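Quick one: structure for this chain?
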Amino acid sequence: MTSTATPPVSDTDLPGITPGTARRVTVASFVGTALESYDFYLYAYFAAFFVGPLFFTPLGAFGGVLAGFLAIAAGFVIRPVGAVIFGHLGDRIGRRPVLLMTILLMGISTGLVGVLPSYQAAGWFGGIALVVLRLVQGLSLGGEWGGSILLATEYANPKRRGFYAALPQLGSPVGSILSAVVFIVLTLSMSSADIAAWGWRIPFLTAFPLLLVSLYLRWSIDETPVFRRLLETGRRDRFPVVDVFRKAPTGFVIAVGAAVLGIGSYSLMNTYMVDYGTSVLKFSFQDLLVATTIGGLLQLVTIPLFGLWATKIGSARVVAIGAIGTLLIAFPMYLLLQSASFAVLVGSMIIGGILPTLSWAGLGGLMADLFPSEVRYSALSVAYSIAALLTSFVPALTLLLGNATGNAWWHPGVVLAIMSAITLVAAWAASRRRPVLDDVSA
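Got it. Here's what it folds into:
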């Protein structure tokens, strides 16, 4: 792969950038991603506890949980389609307008979940509508992550790309924390009967006012200097999604593998663990939410630190270290969880959160280093969405593996170890490649 490296420039020497602009872009990138993650994670907690009884009643307890997890998968199955659509638009018309589209779709589809009728009220209509809304959410997310990474990194000094690429990654733990806190408040302030009857709707309805905040922040920013340069030079590809496979086929495969652990560990720890922890380990739903929130709060500190570390040793090495660490603790962590101690649960969420977070924090920088700017939106979006699709079945597959093995203590560790190994190989391959830098000179 050829490099378009140019002499290093400072953050504020990039065309059209002032310190205030850079700060506003960083905030818009992070807050928008956080609110999209909040919308998406609401359903993750909802699926593990409420979806089956509310929308898939005839399927029974196990079938209802499995249907809820498969509805999560539906949102991921459609993500590559959204990635192709929005990736193409992002490389053709710009990063900013596409990010306005994605947040609008996400906010509306999430809010509408809050008005769906249950199975008792309308039969299968509610369940079908729920899956349709998950598909719309998946389309939105297909273009969200890549655009947010580009928004942050294409305003940054190339040598600090690893740090700026880590900042949008804060959106995932923040979204997880906010959604968990909402359900914690519900469990503390309402009875289980009231939550099941109508209280579950409240978190989804909050998506409407939060949508207005996101739209305002993204409307107030300008297009990235890298894309403006593409417009000036006429270097936009006519079919950027196709050209990804012509210009960087190996980089694309590496990007997919590198993303597996960062995405899949969230599905395992934040979704499957809620059902496994309550039904098998006999933790309370509230204990699991509290433990997950503590782990997420710690990530608010570790992700920026890991991003700074990426500027020192490279994003690919940070991802690799996270994969090695996760591989080492995968089985011991789940063995210790059999004690059903709340302290062990919190410790597992912290350790099992920090190590995969290394791979998560370095992921954006690793992927941005693999692709030229004219196809980067498409490349990041499609690669990330395929990895998300592959890992979308983690909760369902882990549930089936647990059922087949009589919930043997090691069954979640097998899934976590496989994801770690895949990401480790990809990160090693990425570390051996020369980063692609941008020409933003006038």
